[in-house]
Amino acid sequence: xxxxxxxxxxxxxxxxxxxxxxxxxxxxxxxxxxxxxxxxxxxxxxxxxxxxxxxxxxxxxxxxxxxxxxxxxxxxxxxxxxxxxxxxxxxxxxxxxxxxxxxxxxxxxxxxxxxxxxxx
Length: 120
Known about the structure:
The structure is a single chain. By secondary structure, the protein is mostly helical. Helix content is 64%, strand content 10%. It contains 6 helices and 3 strands, in the order βαβαααααβ. Helix 2 packs across helix 4. The longest helix is centred in the middle third of the chain and has 20 residues. It is elongated.
């Protein structure tokens, strides 16, 4: 339904318990919208990505300093690239986890990382 200005009305945001969410999602009645930056930040904290990145960067620098320059640069590149790829895929990864874990669903709703809206 359109409002007087001709713009579509905003989708109806739902607050469903986990069982009702699974049922509605399975039937295709709802859509899960992710706040992309919040999802990336949440996943990064949950997977401890900064704690992964720093030691791998150190190993890459060490390799470069002892003469394995290209290997060291490749390791440094991977240490920078892998967390970015993981963060970019955060919504997909979290969606798969939500379907298996009600606690995560509630945590993401409370943190405003996701919103469940009714499909038009």
